[in-house]
Amino acid sequence: MAALVPLAFLLAFFAWPVWTLIGRGFVSNDGGIAMDAVGSVLGSARTLRIVRTTLTLAVLGTTASVLLGIPGAYVLYVCRFPGRALARALVTVPFVLPTVVVGVAFLAVLGLHGPLGFLGLSQSLTAIVLALVFFNYAIVVRTVGGLWSRLDPRATQAARALGASPRRAFLTVTLPALAPAIASAAILVFLFCASAFGVVMVMGGVRYGTIETEIWYQTTQLLDLPAASALSVVQLVVVAASLLAASAAQGRSERALRLRGDASGEHAWSWRRDWGPTVVTGLVVLGLLALPMITLVIRSLRDATGWTLDHYRALGTTVGRALPVPVWTAIRNSLIVALEATVLALVLGTLVSLVVSRRPRAALGRRALRLLDSVFMLPLGVSAVTVGFGFLITLNRPPLDLRSSIVLIPIAQAVVALPLVVRSILPVLRAIDPRQREVAATLGASPARVLWSVDGPFLLRGMGIGAGFAMATSLGEFGATSFLARLDRPTLPVVIFKLVGRPGEANFGAALAASVVLAVLTAVVMLVAEFVRPPAAGQL
């Protein structure tokens, strides 16, 4: 019964809009099936080039994220040092930042007048890959680190006692134990890289178009629904395959995870032992994660005459009538919408997690739950543009005429945030020893009492990190919101995009200032969520 409400929500506000949009593309003007047009799109040289570019970016972004993220997982989750919780939260902030803002920040760093402009990487494949790593570094760090900190150190200690070097002990003992978490993180990163939208739009232009940007182009610029539908089908195939692989890897990772009272795999940081991973992590955090954001802050405090706060003062205005409402109004709108979306995503995500975390004895039941888990992960990889445009063409008539309703945007953002909530709560519930429930039931506790006394404490703590991800994601969501936001109720990412696209130093300066405000909001949200994170909630 707990699965029916989330399934109905996903059916009405995800499956129906996406299926309707795809279905319209396959129907010709006379009501027949337009397969010829679809076949010509899939077989065209342009489509092949776009698919090749998408896979190239996804493979390079995934490889770089994994190679750089494993040392970060060790430093931030296995080593204990003052300020570790703050460092974890700050590393997570890039994952939830608006993609448009990050694209502009990287252009500012790598542009002709940026601090790294001499490298000549502006609007290059390397620049896009760096931006993808910027977003997805936290996935590898949190997923691998969450398991690494729980590994029993005695196996490694035994290997060392038998004469193995630190390198050999890591390769033969630790790395195989981490393989499920690494595979799970790599699949998710591949999925996010393959479906990247804002970064490629800002940094790639027409030279590095991907499936995601091509769907947007065919839908909004050419109104070619058959082409957009064909590309959406290709994207859905990639997403479905990735999610099935991620579900299998996630299950293996969670079976290796145990809730323990102590973090047995952790140890105090030592420069002599940990200098290698520390140097790599420091270079990534300072050079790749911090530099674009520092550049963003500095540019927001300067104009042609020098240092100034005028860009922040402009947030209380319509920035020379470039906007229909002041920027502070958009900030308030974003906070209200994010709170509504967070509550909705938490309720639905909790119900899904409680169902999927069960352990049926029958093989059919276990397969059904794995399938259910994969179904609720689908919004992670389906184009937000497809979801937003699908809302416009389906939720515009009874029985669900929500065109003028203020709940339309929170619903769309809840669809996007729901998979992250499930991924935050589910590892906690799955890691609970089932014998605790069996003992409580043997002692006479009712199913409701077992749920309250055994699952409840862990569930509440897992909901903290889930709420953090949901709210931060909602604050920065741009793809679907750009279709749905009304002129008199814009959200902050929509306002930033409008300001960036208008000429003039005042507009760009206000966009930078608004971006800094949004980054601070997401940082605060993730910092609070990090402090309530239970030991088993290290995975996304």
Structural notes for this entry:
InterPro entries: MetI-like, MetI-like_sf. Residues 51-246, 331-529 form the ABC transmembrane type-1 domain. Keywords: Cell inner membrane, Cell membrane, Membrane, Transmembrane, Transmembrane helix, Transport. It is a single chain. The protein has 540 residues and is mainly alpha-helical. It has a single domain, classed as Orthogonal Bundle (MetI-like fold), CATH 1.10.3720.10. Helices cover 72% and strands 2% of the residues. It has 22 helices and 6 strands. The strands form 3 sheets. The protein has a two-stranded parallel sheet. A two-stranded antiparallel sheet has the order 3-4. A hairpin with a 2-residue loop joins strand 5 (396-397) and strand 6 (400-401). Helix 21 packs antiparallel against helix 22. The longest helix has 34 residues, at 45-78. The chain is globular and about 65 Å long. The two termini are 26 Å apart.
Short description:
Pfam families: BPD_transp_1. The chain is an all-alpha fold and 540 residues long.
Tags for this entry?
540 residues; mainly alpha; MetI-like fold; two-stranded parallel sheet; two-stranded antiparallel sheet; 22 helices; 72% helix; 2% strand; disordered C terminus; MetI-like_sf; cell membrane; transmembrane; transmembrane helix
Distance between the termini: 26 Å
Tell me what the CATH architecture is: Orthogonal Bundle
| Rg, alpha carbons | 24 Å
What is the topology, as strand order, of the major beta sheet? 1-2
| CATH topology value | MetI-like fold
> How much β-strand is present in the residues?
under 5%
Range of helix content: over 70%
Order of helices and strands: HHHEHHHHHHHHEHEEHHHHEEHHHHHH
